[in-house]
Design brief:
With about 290 residues, the chain is an alpha/beta fold. About 30% of the residues lie in helices and about 30% in strands. It has a single domain, classed as 3-Layer(aba) Sandwich (UDP-N-acetylmuramoyl-L-alanine:D-glutamate ligase). The strands form 2 sheets. Strands 5-4-1-8-9-10-11-12-13 form a 9-stranded mixed β-sheet. It starts with 6 loop residues before the first strand and ends with a helix.
C-alpha cells in the first residue's frame, strides 16, 4: 500500500542570491575586499519549498517573479526537484527579487533584499490548492497573508521573518509561529498569548517550542561543521511544519527540524545544501 506524501503549499518569495564569500563580515561603513562572488537560487519561499520537497513532501509554490533571466535561474532547483510551480506568477512589469549576501569564514551572513516582483503577489492572483499544511513568511504583502489566513483551512505556519508589524488576526490564526531570537524579542510577549505553537530558534544552541508561554519541547543542534548558514532557518521551518503535519509529536518534530537545519549549513548557498530526509535522519541517529 502506497502512503500519500504530506501536501504542503508555500506562499512566499523567490530571489536570486548574489553571494560574496569573505574572511569576515564588514562593520558599518567598512569595506572588506578579496571576496569571491557566486550566484544561487534563494528567497524564503523558494528555500522552504525546496526544503520541504527534499524532505519528502509534495510541494506547491505560490509566488511572483519577473519576466527575466533571473527568474529561470532562481527557479531552476525547484523545477529539478519537481516542485509544482503552476502557481508562480510572472509579472512583466517588475524584476525578479534579488538578495545581496555576505558570508564569512564561519558561515555567518549579512543579507540585503531588493524584493522586486515579490511585492506583486496579491491575493487576487492566488489559487490555493488543497493541502495538509501551508507555510508563509513576511517577504510578500501582509494583505496577501491575511487573505490566506481567512481562506486556508489546514495547518498554517507563519514564519515571522523579516520582522514587520502584522495583524493580530494573522497571529491568532497560525497553528505554528516560527521566530529567531531577534524576531522573538521584536514581537515580545504577544506571541505567547496565542493558542498556537511558537518555535524559537537559538542558532547553534538549538530551539525551543512553546504553547501559551509554557515550554513544550527543547532540543540542541547535532554537531556539524557549518560553512554557510544562509537558508538554515528556512530549512528548520519547513522541516518542523512537515514533521507536525505528518503527526510527529512536538519533541520529535523539533529534533527533526534542528537536524535538517544543521545539515543545510554544511553546503554553500541557501538551497544547494538543503538535505534529503535520509541525511537529516542519519544526523539524528549519530
Amino acid at each position: 500500500m502506497t502512503v500519500q506524501a504530506t501536501r504542503i503549499v508555500i506562499t512566499g518569495s523567490v530571489n536570486l542570491d548574489l553571494v560574496a564569500r569573505v574572511a569576515r563580515l564588514p562593520k558599518a561603513g567598512e569595506t572588506v575586499t578579496n571576496g569571491e562572488l557566486g550566484r544561487s537560487p534563494g528567497g524564503k519561499g523558494a528555500n522552504q519549498a525546496l526544503a520541504a520537497r527534499r524532505l519528502g513532501a509534495e510541494v506547491s509554490l505560490l509566488a511572483c517573479v519577473g519576466n527575466d533571466a533571473m527568474a529561470d535561474e532562481a527557479l531552476a532547483l525547484l523545477r529539478a526537484a519537481n516542485v509544482d510551480l503552476s502557481g508562480v506568477i510572472v509579472d512583466p512589469g517588475c524584476a525578479t527579487g534579488v538578495a545581496l549576501i555576505a558570508v564569512d569564514a564561519r558561515g555567518e551572513n549579512q543579507i540585503v533584499v531588493a524584493p522586486g516582483a515579490n511585492r506583486r503577489l496579491s491575493a487576487d492572483k492566488l489559487q490555493l490548492p488543497p493541502a495538509d499544511a501551508l507555510i508563509c513568511q513576511l517577504e510578500v504583502p501582509v494583505e496577501t497573508l491575511e487573505f490566506i489566513a481567512r481562506t486556508f483551512e489546514g495547518f498554517l505556519c507563519v514564519n515571522l521573518a523579516p520582522v514587520t508589524d502584522v495583524p493580530e488576526a494573522l497571529l491568532q490564526r497560525a497553528d505554528l509561529l516560527v521566530v529567531n531570537e531577534g524576531e522573538a524579542k521584536y514581537y515580545g510577549d504577544k506571541l505567547h498569548r496565542l493558542g498556537g505553537l511558537v518555535a524559537t530558534t537559538l542558532g547553534g544552541r538549538g530551539a525551543v517550542l512553546y504553547r501559551r508561554g509554557e515550554i513544550v519541547a527543547t532540543t540542541t543542534v547535532p554537531e556539524v561543521v557549518p560553512v554557510d548558514t544562509t537558508g538554515a532557518g528556512d530549512c528548520f521551518t519547513a522541516a518542523l511544519t512537515l514533521g507536525l503535519a505528518e503527526g510527529q509529536d512536538a519533541a520529535e518534530a523539533l529534533r527533526f527540524a534542528c537536524a535538517a537545519a544543521a545539515v543545510s549549513t554544511t553546503g554553500h548557498g541557501a538551497q544547494a545544501g538543503l538535505p534529503d530526509r535520509a541525511a537529516a535522519l542519519a544526523l539524528l541517529a549519530n
